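FAQ: What does a ligand-bound record look like?

Like this one, built around uridine-5'-diphosphate-glucuronic acid:
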Amino acid sequence: MKLSVIGCGYLGAVHAAAMASIGHEVVGIDVDESKIASLSQGEAPFFEPGLPEILSDGIASGRLSFTTDMAQADGAEVHFIGVGTPQQKDGYAADMTYVNAAIDALIPHLRPGDIVAGKSTVPVGTAAGLAERLASTGATLVWNPEFLREGFAVKDTVDPDRLVAGVPLGDEGARAADILREVYHPAVAKGTPFIVTDYATAELVKVAANAFLATKISFINAMAEIAEVTGADVTQLADAIGHDARIGRRFLGAGIGFGGGCLPKDIRAFTARAEELGRGESVGFLREVDAINLRRRERAVQLVVDALHGDMFKKNITVLGAAFKPHSDDIRDSPALDVAVRLRGLGAWVTVTDPEALHNAARVHPQLNYVEDRDEALRGADAVIVVTEWDEYRGGLDPEHAAQLVAGRVIVDGRNCLDAAAWRAAGWTYYGMGRP
Ligand code: UGA
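The answer part, i.e. the structure of the complex:
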């Protein structure tokens, strides 16, 4: 099938390349010329395992191209909208500027029968409004939310755990759902759940899923706060409750909390939308989820300050990690970098290392010292804090080896990812998050 993907950021670039990898002819369209130039060369503008390979394969096969020219969308059967919906600069709601601009630019190129498939994360009620705007074109709007995780984005796009299609009523909706089934043919053929529903439900599936995940993380972080005053160990607590299949162990990783381009802004946009709908109290708990999450960054900073007996002056602190999570170079709302910046604000000399995210971090926070080599970064540290659980820092860092490099054997495990006993045995003073 011929497809267009409007917006070539994280979501759009991966979607375009993944769709080409399953046999479609795809054009990716974005207003950002430098992004299009690098994608056209087969270069991913961000770190995502597996993406460079499918980008260059797609381009070499002739099935995948990128352009800034919206006219190239002419003739595609399905047009995916994958532009960003960041948090508004002056509020909690989602900024819909890019979605509206993409729809305006696309409308002149639509033919009757075309499908416009919205993938951006939007406030519930958006799709119904967009469908009205598209009515005169004869195109059909479907809402097809995306559930990809950074670091696993290619796999999550080609082989998702579910597909959701919000469609209009009647034959038009049934036809649109069939076309989406054809788009996602390999996943559909292997029996991936394909949920056909109305617009509002499809929009809500996305924000509800992210709100649930954020709540789960903040729940275990709230338990970490209780563990801290009772001497309990939150990681054992998570293991024990996680054995209950109704609860499950995943996303019960206590630490410095969630960040990134999705969970924080999505829960805020959800509360803002619920308030507009007169149902603010229904998701009022998400404000608490947000507050717990932000408190954990503060806690990690406090652990470092306490470990250094309150004296941060001329202290060298090495921060292991900058990305908001491993397998990503994304620093949007990164708890890791937030902790580094706060430590620097307290007067310490802060050195940050990360396998992938240093170039992004240095652009946004030039006041920090960045060192690519992990061991070089550790040299002379008075305290070390792990804030992104890259393999290089969890199993990959031998506490005996690290002890030879630092000036002071103080380690704060902001992700509860280290073997506390092994670090203590190597002479380190170990502090976890909600662990004795
Ligand atoms: C999230 C969702 O997991 C995806 O399903 C969704 O499609 C995506 O947002 C989106 O809306 O586009 P992502 O932002 O890539 O994906 O990251 P997650 O893997 O969800 O991690 C989010 C944050 O939670 C990270 O900072 C991570 O370190 C933190 N986290 C995760 C914890 O603190 N504890 C955990 O147990 C798990």
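Follow-up question: can I read anything off the structure? Yes, for example: DSSP finds 17 helices and 14 strands in the chain.
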